[in-house]
Amino acid sequence: MTDFLNWLGSFIGATIRMATPLMFVAIGSCVTQQGGILNMAGEAMMLASSLFGIVFIGVTGKIWVGILCGALVSVLVTLFICFAAFVMKVDMYLMSISMNMALLGGVIFGMWLIYGVKSHTAPFVIFDPVANVRIPLIDKIPFIGEILSGHNIFTWIAVFFGLFTQFLLFKTKFGLRVRAVGQNPQAAESVGINPRKIYTLAFAYAGLVSSFGGMYLSMGYQNFFIKNITANRGFIGLAAATAADAKPGLSIIMSILFGLAYAITNSLKVYIMEQQLLAALPYLLTTVLILVLSYWRYTKAQRLLRENRKKLAEMRAQQLAEEAAAEKA
Amino acid sequence: MRKVARVETAFEVFRIVVGIILAYIIAILITISVTDTSLQVAIRNFMFGPFTSKRRFGQLMGKYIPYLFSGCGMCFIYACNRFNLIGEGIVNMSPIFACMVMFGTPLMTNLPIVVNQIIMLAVCGITGGLLALVPAFAREKLGASEMVVSIVMNNLLLYLSQYFLKVSVADRTMSQLASPIHPANMRFTRIWPNTNFTTAIFYGILGVILASIIFFYSREGQKIRLVGANRTFAECCGINSTRSLYIAQIIGGVFAGWAGCVDTFGLYDRYLYIALTNIGMDGLIVAVIAKKQPIFVPLSAFVMAMIRTAAVTLNTSADLPIEFATMMQAILVLFVAAENFMGGWKNKIIFGMTEKQKAAEKEGAAA
Q: A3 vs chain B: nearest CA distance in angstroms?
C-alpha cells in the first residue's frame, strides 16, 4: 500500500510538472477567450520567450533579468501580431498561425545568429535551472508531500497567475470590459469602450503569462533551449482553456488533465516497446480528451437548450391558459 | 461602381506583387548582413538560383507540384473561414495506405502505370478526405476548435503513420524505417532523369483545373464561397451551411492526400518521412497569396516553391539556415493578407474618382 501511495504521489507530481507550461498558456488564453478571440499564438509567445530568456541570462548572468527580458520579448511578439491584426487588418488567426510557423524557424535562425549552432544552447549558456521549492513540514508527509512539495517556482507562479487572472477577469473594471467586449464588441463600443485597446491589452497579458510557460521549459524543466522545445504545447494549453470555458481556475485543472497524457506516456515507457506508438500516445490521449470534453459540453448545452425550450413552452401554455381564462371571465 | 471594383482588383494584384518584392528585399538584406555573401550573389541565388541549373529547377518543381494540391485544398477550407490544418498530417499518413495497397496486396502488380497512379491518388485522396472529417466533426458538431484538434492530430498522424508502416510493409533490410522501393509501375516517373521534375505535374495541372471548376462553376463551390462570405446570409438563402463546411473540409483533405501522394511517389524511391513535411502548412500560405482562389494557385505555389528552393540554395551556398524561409513566409503573409497595406492610397484614388464623377454629374445637370 505504501509503495502504491509513493508511486501515486510521484506520478501526480510528474503530472503537475508536465502540466506547468500548459497552465501558463491556458491562463493566458482564458483572458483572450473571454475577450472573444482564441489565442492561437501561444506557440509563438512560448518560443520567443524560451530562447530570449536564455540569451539574456547568457548576457547578464542573472536569471531574473532573463525572465524579465523573455517576458518582454514575448509581449513584443504579441504586440506585433496585434499591430498586424488591428492596424494592418490581417486576419488575426492567420497572422497567429504564420507567426507560430515563423518563430518555429525564427528561433533556430536566432540561435544560429547568436551562437552559431542550430541544435541547442547547452554549451553556451551555463546556469542552474530555477529551483524547486521544498515546503517544510508538508515535505515530510508521505503522500501529500510528494504532491505538494518539490515543485518548481514556475509551478507556483502559474498558480499565482491563475488566482490573479481569476480576480482580474471577474473582480476588476478591466476584466468586466474584457468580458463585455467578448460578449458583444459593438455594444461595448457604444458605451465608450475601445475594443481594439481591450483586445490588445488582453493579448499583451496573454503574451506575458504564456511567456512563463516557454521560460519554464528552457529555465525550469531543463537549463537550455532546444529546437522545437514547445512541441505544440501552445495549442494544447489553448485546448485546456477552451475545455475550461475560459475560466482560469478551471483551466489549471484542465491543464493537469492534459498533462496527465504526457505523464501516462512516460510511465508506460517500461511496458510499451513500440517507440512510435509511445510517441503518438500523448497526442492520441489529448485528441481523445479534447473530443470527449467537447462532446460533454455539447450534450450539456443541448440539454440546457431542451430544458429552456420546455420551460418556455410551459410558460407560453400557462400564459395562453390564463388569457383564455380571463377571456371566459 | 465597375470602376471602383476595377481599382480594388488592381490594388489587390499590386499589393501582392509589392508584398512579394518587399519580402524578397528584406530577405536579401538579412542575407547580406548576416553572411559573407555579396549583394550580387544574394540576388542571383534568391531570384535566379532555381533557374541556374536543370537540377535546381527540378528541385523547384519537386516543391511546386505538392503545393499545387495542398494550396488548392486550403483554398476550399480557408474560403469558408476554417483553419483545419490537418493537411500536414494527411501528407504523412495517406501514402501509408497507398503503400499497404501497393505492397500488401497483389492488386497493382501487373497494372499499367497510369492506372496505378490513379489507384494511388484515389487511396490517398479517400484517406485524406476521411481524416479531414475528424477536425471538421469536432468543430461543426462538438464546437471544438478545428485548428487545435488538427494541429494535435498532425503529430498523432506523424507517429501513427510510422507505426503503421513498421507493423505493415516496412522494409526490414533497411536500417531506418522505410517502405520497400516503389516499383517502376507504381510511381510518378521523372521527366528529366535525376531531377525531381516528375509526371505528377500533369496531375497537378488537372488538380488545379478540377479545383477551379468545383470552386467557381459548381453548385457546391458557390455554396462554400457564400457560406465563407456570410454564413447567416447563406442560411437565410436556404443553404445547409454545416453541410457545405463539411464538404469544403473534405475537399481540402482529399487535395492534401493527393499532395502527399505526388510527394512520396514522385520525389522519393521509398516512403521515408520521419518528420512533418510542412507541405500542408505551406498550402495555407499558398492559399492566402492566391487570395483563396484556386485559379491563382499555380502562381502563388510557384512563389512559395521559389522561396523554399532559394532557402535551400542559400543554405548550401551561404550557409544560411533553411529555417530562414519560414520567417520570409510570415513577412509575405503580413503584406499580402493585410487589407490596410496601401489601403489609404487606394481609398484616396476611389474618393478622387467618386468626387470627379459627382462633379461631372453636377456639370451635366447644370448644362
A: 34
Q: Three-class SS of residue B218?
A: coil
Q: Which domains does chain B have, with CATH numbers?
A: 57-302 (1.10.3470)
CA distance B133 to B113: 30
C-alpha A131/C-alpha B314 separation (Å) is 42
With an 8 Å Cβ cutoff, are B159 and A283 in contact?
A: yes
Distance CA B139, CA B246 (A): 10
B285, A113: Cβ pair inside 8 Å?
A: no
Point out the residue among A94, A109, A277 whose CB comes nearest to the CB of B337: A94
The answer to whether the CB atoms of B152 and A295 lie below 8 A apart is: no
| B156 close to A (CB below 8 A) | yes
Contact call for residues B199 and B61 (beta carbons, < 8 A): no
Q: Do A101 and B156 touch (CB under 8 A)?
A: no
Radius of gyration of chain A (CA): 23
**B 18-47 residues with CB < 8 A to A:** 34
CA A93 to chain centre: 17
Site from A29, A95, A101 to mutate, B interface, most B CB atoms within 10 angstroms = A101
Residue of B nearest to A291 (CA): B138
Q: Is the dihedral of CA B188, B286, B233, B148 positive or negative?
A: positive
Mutation target to probe the B interface, by most B beta carbons within 10 A, among A91, A232, A273 is A91
pLDDT at A315 over 90: yes
Q: Mean of the per-residue pLDDT values for chain A?
A: 89
Question: Under an 8 A CB cutoff, do A239 and B152 touch?
Answer: yes
> Can you give the pTM of this predicted structure?
0.88
Alpha helices by DSSP H, chain B: 2-34, 39-43, 54-79, 87-104, 113-140, 146-167, 200-212, 219-229, 231-236, 241-262, 279-289, 297-317, 324-336, 343-366
Q: Let me know if B126 is exposed, middle or buried by CB neighbors in 10 A (0-12, 13-18, 19+).
A: middle
CA distance to partner chain B, nearest, from residue A184 (Å): 17
Are the beta carbons of A277 and B159 separated by less than 8 Å? yes
Contact B276, B257 (CB under 8 A): no
Residues of chain B found within 8 Å of residue A233, distances taken between Cβ atoms: none
Position A216 pLDDT exceeds 90: yes
Give burial (CB, 10 Å; 0-12/13-18/19+) of A3: exposed
What pLDDT score does B236 carry? 92
CB contact under 8 A, A279 and B166: no
A84 closest CB neighbour out of B85, B160, B338: B338
Whether B150 and chain A come into contact, CB under 8 Å, resolves to no
Kind plus residue range of the DSSP H or E element containing A115: helix A92-115
Q: How far apart are CA A132 and CA A296, in angstroms?
A: 36
Q: Please say whether the beta carbons of A66 and A130 come within 8 A.
A: no
- How high is the mean pLDDT in each 10-residue block of chain B (367 residues)? 77 84 84 79 78 85 93 93 91 93 85 90 94 93 88 92 90 87 88 85 94 93 92 91 93 95 91 89 89 90 87 76 81 80 80 85 82
Going by the DSSP 8-state scheme, the letter that residue B264 receives in this structure is I
Q: Which pLDDT tens digit goes with each residue over A61-87?
A: 888 999 999 999 999 999 999 999 988
